[in-house]
Amino acid sequence: MKLTPAGLLIVNNIQLINNDFLQKIIILEQQVQNIQQQINGYSQDIGQLQADVSVINTELARQTHFRGYFTTNDEILELTNPAIGDYAYSAEDLLVWDYDGSQWVETDKIVPDQMTPASDANPLSDGTVTAGTSAEYSRGDHIHPLNISTSVPISDTADGTVGASVNYSRSDHSHPINISSTTPLQDSTGSVGTANSYARSDHQHTINVETNASNIPVVDGVGVNGSSTFYARHDHVHPQQLTYDGNVTATKFIKTGGLASEVLCANGDTTTI
């Protein structure tokens, strides 16, 4: 078999095909290949459809064996005409029950609608109370962001306030000192006071004693409560009163060194009885 320059195909010295006819055969072969590729594509589609049908059949079989969602386990145990592969959901323990051919068996599989997904969102800071709307649960190792104040604590005030901050104070926070910078007052008539500051632990009141040297303790006389706002110094000395212009009344006069048999005279002498 050979092909001549003129485009003729010669087999056993017999001319069979010219060049034009050969080109048509080549085109037909290409078309056959395209059709074959399409058939292969259809085969893949058919395979996918068959897989989908298998999934549908499995779901139909599952739904066929699904006996329902029951409030208690006893309701499942009382189901009639169960078959192998039957299963039911229990609201009592939120588990799936399977029928093994002789009895209903409680599995460890959770009812699908009770399988809550884990949340991937960051936990919120404490704030205004709310029931929340999330249907997801928090992971066991979740951490809430710090909800602490970054402001300097305020000083104590006279009236106080409940406050409106939603932040917590750090455990090592310290309030600014709220103490008085004025000299403590002397004792006087007494007063509740209006200052909003505390007194320092080492404060000292100014001495509340008479500092005028000309004001000396009074001589003993008629008793009186007095009106002075000063204290008497512990080493003060009253002046002696040696002369009395008025009558003297006393229950007794005692002279140092006198005897029980002696009488004290007005001039200071003693006379034996």
Automatic annotation (TrEMBL):
<feature type="coiled-coil region">
    <location>
        <begin position="18"/>
        <end position="52"/>
    </location>
</feature>
<keyword id="KW-0175">Coiled coil</keyword>
<feature type="region of interest" description="Disordered">
    <location>
        <begin position="172"/>
        <end position="195"/>
    </location>
</feature>
<feature type="compositionally biased region" description="Polar residues">
    <location>
        <begin position="177"/>
        <end position="195"/>
    </location>
</feature>
<protein>
    <submittedName>
        <fullName>Uncharacterized protein</fullName>
    </submittedName>
</protein>
